[in-house]
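Quick one: structure for this chain?
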Amino acid sequence: MKKAYIGGIVAAVVVVGGVIGGHQILSHASQNNEVIVGVVGDSSRELWGDLAKRAAKENIKITVKTFNDYVKPNQALADGSLDLNAFQTRVFFDDQNKKTGSKMTPIGNTVIVPMRMYSLQYHKIADIPANGTIAVPNDATNEQRALDVLEQAKLITYNHKVDNPTARDIVKNPKHLSIKEVDSAQTVSALKGADAAVINGNFAHDAKLSKDDVLISQDLTKNIKPYINIIAAQKKDANKKIYRQIVKLYQTKETAKDISRIFGDSEAPIWDAK
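Got it. Here's what it folds into:
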């Protein structure tokens, strides 16, 4: 198979970085119109930094906090350390929202980003050797996406009847590949010691992985909705005027231009999707 990647369809507005303080911060939006937004990755921080400049003209102060994993931004939103976050797909959000007590809700769509399989050694899927190693994310929804990519590449087949499938649910593996499960943020590092790795778009972009290293991209043409990225808020704050203003500022031609400039064809605006 030739290398493939979906230009213009990709997403995952992301928010990455460190932990936000050691205590709960409440009602930021009522304090001088300040809204604290969590994202994953330097590129997403840049995107939201540009949006913050536009928001300032409307007397809205956006403070961007970056995280380096996909779990802490939701924990911080649920406990009130963040006002909003913007980094995750709907399917990932649904899974995490249950784990944080269902305190959160989506308030706007952002982008879409296909997950891709990369290799630094091989140029075709067929070249991946028998008994080779492929790294995949180990969190529930992203690991299933990775298994979908491997199945799309005809490297494995897994049991689709299982909720939150993992490598243990692979039922066909003709090349006897070793599936190495690692934290999503570590898939880029794992790629260096593996034959291939399935990597989320934001981590691949921030690591400056080349399109030439893409073996296959997740096909999102048939089932887009679960993989649309969102802006999330606490349920009790979902209708706050200032949050709705921020969503409106995000979903503009200016933001679409910034997405194109920063992410190229690795992410695409999708806020008009139903």
